[in-house]
Amino acid sequence: MATLVTFHAHPDDECINCGGVMRKAADEGHRVVLVVATRGELGEVEDGFLDPGEDLTSRRVAETHAAAEVLGVARVAFLGYTDSGMMGEPTNDVSGTFWTAPVEEAAARLAAILTEEAADVLTIYDDNGGYGHPDHIQVHRVGTRAAELAGTPRVYQATANRDSIKAMQAAAQERGEAPVGPPEDFEIGKPEAELTARVDVTKYLDAKRAAMRAHASQISEDSFFLAIPDEAFGFAFGIEWFIRAGQGPGITETDIMAGL
Length: 260
Ligand SMILES: [Zn+2]
Hints:
Elements: E1 3-8, H1 13-27, E2 31-38, H2 56-70, E3 75-81, H3 103-117, E4 121-125, H4 134-150, E5 154-159, H5 162-174, E6 197-200, H6 205-214, H7 224-227, H8 230-237, E7 239-243
Helix pairs in contact: 1-6, 2-6, 3-4
The structure holds zinc ion (ZN).
C-alpha cells in the first residue's frame, strides 16, 4: 500500500484530469490525498444557483469534498491561495493569487503535506498546465519544486493527448458532426510522442462522471462533460495520460502506482 498525492489548481480539475487514477488507486488499497491550490473563487455560476446568502467559495469547497468522497479520497487539503483567472486577466496580478505566489513559498506548503503523508507518488500538470491557465502552469512549477524539497520519488505530469484529441475532432467532422472539445487553435495537452504513461481508467468512468456531477456549480448537466453519450465520454475520458521525467521515449507505463 502506498500514498498518492494529487495536486490541482481549482476544484473540479481533479476529476477531469485524474479522477480515474484516483479511484483506481483507492480501489487498489492505496491512500489518496487531494491537494487543491485555490478554492476556485473566480468560477462562474448561473444566477439563482446559490442559496440566498451562500457564497461560491464555500459551495465549491463542499463540492470538492463530495467529489473526493466519490473518488475514494482519504484527505482533502487546500493550499490557501486564490484563483488567478484566465491568462491575461487583470485578476492574475491580485495579491494572494496562486499565480503571484513565490514558487518557493507555495512549494514549501505542498512539501509539508508530501512529507507528512510520506507520499510515494505525486501528480502535477505539464509545463503548460494542460492549456495555459496561469494557476495550472503554477501547479507544474510548484509541484516540481515541492517534490524536490520532500524527496517524493515519483512525479507524474497529468496532461492530454493532443494527437488523439485532434483525431477525434477530425473523425467527428468527417461524420458531419458539430465539433466537440477545444477549438482548433487552442493548444491543449502534449503530442503523443512526449507522453510516457497511458492509464486505462474505463472501469472507473462511472465514478469519474459522478465526481464531475458533484461539481454542479461549474459542470452543468448540459455541459460537454455530462451531456455527451456514455460511449463518447469513454473515448474522451477513458484514458488518462501522463509524463514522467526520465521515462520514455514513448509509453513505458500503464499504471502510476505500479509496483507499490
Ligand atoms: Zn483549473
